[in-house]
Amino acid sequence: MIDTHTHIYGEEFDEDRSAVVARALEAGVNMLLLPNIAADSWQPMLDLCAAPGGKSTLCRSTLPEGSLLVANEVMRNRSQVLAENLIKWGHPEVVVTNNDPADFTELTHLFDVILTDVPCSGEGMFRKDPVAVDEWSLENVDICWQRQRRILTDIWPALKPGGLLIYSTCTFNREEDEDNVAWIAKELGADVLEVPTDESWGITGNLTGGGFPVYRFLPHKVKGEGFFLAVLRKHEGECEEMPSRKLKSPSRMDKKKKGKDNKQPLSVPKEAKEWLASASDYSLAMKDTQVVAFPKVYQDEYALLQQTLKVIHAGITLGEIKGKDLIPHHSLAMSTALADDTFPLAEVTYEQAIAYLRKEGLVLDADVPRGYVLLTYQQMPLGFVKNIGNRANNLYPQEWRIRSGYLPEEVVTVF
Prior knowledge:
Blueprint: H1 17-33, E1 45-47, H2 54-62, E2 69-72, H3 76-89, E3 94-97, E4 111-117, H4 130-135, H5 138-155, E5 159-169, H6 178-189, E6 190-193, E7 215-217, E8 227-234, H7 252-259, H8 270-274, E9 282-287, E10 290-295, H9 299-308, E11 311-314, E12 316-322, E13 325-328, H10 330-334, E14 345-347, H11 350-357, E15 371-377, E16 380-387, E17 392-394
Parallel strand pairs: 1-2, 1-4, 2-3, 4-5, 14-15
Antiparallel strand pairs: 3-11, 5-8, 6-8, 7-8, 9-10, 10-12, 12-13, 15-16, 16-17
């Protein structure tokens, strides 16, 4: 099986010192949480403000196997970028949604961990972004801390009692940082937790004289931009009313929509299961003309998310039915769940790889079999083509293509 977790097309995010320390902190959070959760009772994690996806890929890599990550972005165009990056990351236990924080309120006690990297006044971006300086004002700080509290109030019922809230901003002022952490602890009901750190990392603690631990990443002390993080555990025995999670019956309108064109619904092609390394672990279903595979262990949660939220990607999109053909989807090419030897592999040069990512036509070597072929570059997956002999039809997603025609004189690679 091809491991896409470390391939170049997934790792698109800056790995500065702050990001490295954040990685260590979130690993520490795992150590605080996981010993208190039985292996068979692990619930999903929510990354609430997830785009473009750097935090989500980090969290997905840190979470234990068998867990589910829900990555959300409220802005529609940014949610598409989030879905793209998580598809490239290749992990099947992911759901991407496009919702307002208020939409999560009714998902009572669904999540063991919620990461809220909330919209803020952006003081930590001053060094690299002149626009952040121009847009800053005391009035904007006031707007931000109040909006942050509304967001936290909206998502608080969705966090399980005893679950963790990771609260972060990219700003420096106490109103959006320490004051909000103190407010969460007092008004919503939580304990602020200490996370193991190392003095050599250069992290600064609480600047308000408060007795609770927080973690400030100041640009003159760490390599990177400004960042603030705190971890809180929700009090046990919260009194939110736990609603029944019975799935809703289809409404008359839903039935009417389904039956208005009297089209026979498509069935899942048999060969789709053969494309998965462990097909018995997945439920396969049709979504319009696409075949989607989702882990069986989270089937009920997935159904609930579909009813409550706008899901734009989930699990693995295996392929799309066009006429009599099942065309393999790019999501499958990137997935770690792709079965070995399902498709022939064709290793390409750097120039061919760039041409493929620009969605240009390719001509493969004469010994490459005809039909669907998975292209690789340095043994890492690029995506599918349909080789018809004299040329290979490029199946890379049109909306993801590289638009620049520039090629550097000297190629610098990361592996």
